[in-house]
Amino acid sequence: MADLKEKFNFGFELHKQGKLDDAEKVYLEILEETPQNAEILNLLGMICMQKFQLSKAEEYILKAIDINPNKYFLENLAKVYLEKEDSEKAITIYSELLKLSEDNFDYLFNLATAYKLAKNVEKTIETYKKAIKVNPNHQDTYFNLGLIYDNIGQPQESIKYYKKAIELSPDDMETRYFTSLSYFKNRDYGHGLPYFESRLCRQTAIVTQANTYPNLFNEKPIWQGENVPDKTIYTYYEAGFGDVLMFSRYLPLLQKRCKKIIFKPQVPLVELFEYNFPEIEIVRFFKQEADMEFDYHIPILSLPYALGLNENDMFVGKSGYLKADNEIVERYKKEYFNNDSFKIGIKWRGNTHYEMDRVIDIKSFTKLFNIPNTKFYSFQTFEGAEDLNEIINDYDIVDIGKTVKNFSDTAGALENMDLIICNDTSLAHLAGAMNKHCWILLPYLYNWRWHLDLTKCDWYDSVKLYRQKESGNWDEIFDRMYSDLKNIV
Q: Do 404 and 381 contact (CB within 8 A), yes or no?
């Protein structure tokens, strides 16, 4: 027996040190000698959970509970079910545990998490609020409540809980950022923009530029919005193409505050911006630091905050602020668009690194293809372009995506279109910035920038918004669009 105790202590020490494989071997040796050892079965289950072998973890802990149904083993089993996202079983166990200890904060918090997995919004909110009564100083509870309220379209409630989370953890950049998005969704930019300065992509953009121009960034301050009529301001991209296209509307306002702007967009946007902003120095590739000269710098998504904008003046350029190069427009017209059909461009996928909810199955578009007097053009590029092969033999779709090498080409082709139908992606922002008619298809949980009132688009006069009525259901949107498109054509 002494040997077993020594072996247990040895295995447990290995376990505490994170040497999971070694600890597991010791535990298995003990189990071979004492097959009804509930404590060892439970510890083996915990090791399997740590190694994300969840089915094995469940099996071990269930055996432990059969031998000794104690509260600690049930807690561990419930955690396994949370990891497996088996919300029903997790809810059952935590509900039983709460009968034994109704004021246990961990049980309440984890039960709320299980309800969230089950998409039971009412129970999730109710249970998080019970958890707050037990422990009113737990930051994550307030953050999760804020997130739930934001997802159900109640940003005012969301802000209330986010701000409480910030009180408890003032340096939590993520919560500050999410607070900004709730303000934005409620169209309150005056309050939201200061919180938006906590976004991760701002920090990344500054660090990236500082690595390129270490001496300049050490010497030159971030522009705070002051008038500097004899100075040069360097602004640079962050986030995705769509964000930069959307926020480029503020470049003319920036021009009024300084002598010169140097702007570094992503390379595929360079020619488009060179054509539209001839007075701005557009940087294609990074210059050598010795050849770069500026007095202030600022990431582009910080421009509205530095400019002191709010909901009354955020939406400059609603009727269009970008144009296509006329030569490219004519080239595309001659080669692809010289017909009398109603020309419709489509795109179904953006950057899936961020949100899969915005991806549309290309086959969803096929219902529209049979409307008379229409001609469809695919603007899909890179990831997702291969999806066109699924339908290209059955429908007469022109693949414009393979002809474009940058956004200047895209704009030239776009100018020839009567309508663009696409997911929430950079093409939508380009169409809106060019004042081209565009229908944007939004998932059920949609991005902050489209606000709560989807009957209009505050950013672009030419854009109409269609939102899923239930998560994942694009068919209902296409039924609505089919009727609207038939009426137009």
A: yes
